[in-house]
C-alpha cells in the first residue's frame, strides 16, 4: 500500500512539473538557462561547495517558478473575475520568483566572473567553426523550446487578476 501511494505521489509531482513546463515560458527559460550554466560550469573548475551552491540556486529558482504557477492556478480557480486581492497574490508570487532570479544572477557573478576563464572559453568556442555552429544551433533550439514548446489548448490562466 505504501509503495503505491509513494509512486502515485511521485507520478503526480512529475505530471505537475511537466504541465508547468508545457504551460509556462518563464519556467522553460529558467530550465534552459540552468542547462547552459550546468554545461559551461565545467570550464570554471568549481569547488564541490560552489557546485552545490549552484545546484541549490537553480533548484530554488525552479521551485519558486513552480510555486508561482500553483498560486496563479489556485487564484484563477477561486477568483475567475477580476479581483484586487487576487492580483496582489499573483504579484507577490511573481515577486518571489524575481527575488530568486536576481539572487541567482548574483551567485552566478560570484562563481563565474573570472575574465581570464571567460576569455579562454570564448577563444575556444570561436576558434572552431564547428563549435561556433554547434553553440548557435543550441541557442536557436533553446529559444524555440522557450517560445514554442507549449500546449495548444487553454492553460486556465485568468489574465485579468
Quickly describe the structure.
The chain is mostly helical and 161 residues long.
Which helices and strands appear, and what pairs or packs with what?
Blueprint: H1 2-23, H2 25-40, H3 48-78, H4 84-112, H5 115-126, H6 129-148
Helix pairs in contact: 2-3, 2-6, 3-4
Structure description:
The structure is a single chain. With 161 residues, this protein is mostly helical. It has helices spanning 2-23, 25-40, 48-78, 84-112, 115-126, 129-148. α2 (25-40) packs antiparallel against α3 (48-78), α2 (25-40) packs antiparallel against α6 (129-148) and α3 (48-78) runs antiparallel to α4.
Number of domains: 1
Q: What is the tally of beta strands?
A: 0
| Main β-sheet description | none
CA-based shape:
elongated
Task: Please report the first level of CATH classification, the CATH class.
Answer: Mainly Alpha
Content-based structural category:
mainly alpha
* CATH architecture level-2 label: Orthogonal Bundle
Helix content: over 70%
Provide the residue-averaged pLDDT.
92
The proportion of residues in beta strands is under 5%
The DSSP helix count reads: 6
Amino acid at each position: 500500500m505504501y509503495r503505491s501511494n509513494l509512486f502515485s505521489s511521485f507520478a503526480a509531482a512529475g505530471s505537475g512539473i511537466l504541465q508547468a513546463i508545457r504551460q509556462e515560458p518563464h519556467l522553460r527559460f529558467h530550465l534552459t538557462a540552468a542547462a547552459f550554466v550546468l554545461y559551461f560550469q565545467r570550464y570554471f573548475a568549481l569547488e564541490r561547495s560552489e557546485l552545490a551552491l549552484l545546484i541549490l540556486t537553480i533548484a530554488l529558482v525552479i521551485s519558486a517558478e513552480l510555486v508561482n504557477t500553483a498560486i496563479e492556478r489556485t487564484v484563477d480557480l477561486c477568483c475567475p473575475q477580476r479581483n484586487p486581492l487576487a492580483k496582489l497574490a499573483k504579484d507577490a508570487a511573481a515577486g518571489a520568483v524575481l527575488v530568486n532570479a536576481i539572487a541567482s544572477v548574483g551567485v552566478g557573478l560570484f562563481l563565474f566572473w573570472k575574465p581570464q576563464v571567460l576569455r579562454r572559453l570564448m577563444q575556444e568556442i570561436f576558434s572552431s567553426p564547428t563549435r561556433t555552429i554547434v553553440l548557435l544551433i543550441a541557442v536557436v533550439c533553446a529559444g524555440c523550446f522557450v517560445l514554442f514548446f507549449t500546449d495548444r489548448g487553454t492553460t486556465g490562466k485568468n489574465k485579468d487578476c
